Amino acid sequence: MSEQKPNYRVYFQSRPGVNSAPTVSNFGYEPCTYPESPKNRHLVVETKYISVDPYMRCRMNVDSGVDYAKAWGIGETISGFAVGRVLQSTNESYKKGDLVTSTDMSWQWKKFTVVHSESIRKIDGISEEQSSLTLGIFGLTGLTGAIGVMEQGNIQSDLFQTVVVSGAAGACGCVAGQVAKLLGCKKIIGICGTQEKCSFLEEDLKFNGAVCYKSENVKQRLAELCPDGVDVYFDNVGGNISDDVISHMNKCSTVILCGQISTYNSDVPYPPPLNQASAKLVHANSINRERFLVLSYANKFPSTLAFLSKAYAEGKLVSKETISHGLQNAGNAFVQMMSGYNIGKQIVKV
Ligand code: NDP
Description:
Helix content is 25%, strand content 24%. It is α/β, with parallel strands linked by helices.
């Protein structure tokens, strides 16, 4: 007999309207049954931390529009990346008390849930308190920021390169800018949505400058901050901000097309086409602009995690998290992240 404890789940209650931002009412929260005793290499896991991520907005549409994630059905339990502690195991490689994380999307946003042991990995050498790092700087967002810059940035440390990062104070952006600096880039400029985030980038992450796109003229500020033009652009947001950056880019420079969050609430294909003026500039200046997908670089994950861990241990890499509390607040944490509430990685502590 399994131990009977109260269990709860977050489920997909309604789709946001076409061309609308998500709202808290899109997520439901209700009691559900406690899992039965696990069989066939399954584990019962108590969820400790969950990650809310922009790609989830695509899962809220009727068609996700991307091949790596399915749309959620109404009533379906929300799934995503998470960290948890094993309560029961039928796989000898896992025992009660182990901390585990999942990098696929099968994990349920439930307090207690059954997971197949194939879809998880054990977290060793880290306390429960610090295990949320495996959803951020040592998780897919950290890997995205680092691998994007390393593999598609065309970074040359002997040149005085200027790097601009949009969505710079978010999970991927913080890592992208810091890794560019670690690789020898001399000037890193971040674009973000508040003055508080600008101060964080300049003071805590040691960026060379920051622009608040909500209160400043991005084009004008970039002209002041990047008099020699932009050599590498790590693009998390797309839209007008990216048009402004592209207008400052040098010949044969590079755009790492990581994400286009400014368009995720709109019914447009991914990646949306550039406007005519930017497309012309990209062509005329031979700007290399290729789509980047971290999942295409799975073979680089171990070496990149080793690089990030070493830099973090040596105090050369800063991790920042915004933590919301309670599974019942997970939907709200997602909605807030999509509207810019977070600095660094948005996490929910269950
Ligand atoms: P963040 O931690 O950056 O959180 C999202 C941030 O986006 C918000 O805090 C907000 O910051 C900003 N934002 C929201 N709406 C807009 C808008 N209209 N215009 C400009 N900025 C906006 O999220 P992640 O680091 O997890 O993701 C960043 C990007 O990376 C996303 O586009 C995501 O899809 C992409 N990604 C791509 C991967 C890949 O393999 N290519 C893998 C993982 C993520 P602000 O206050 O600055 O507005």
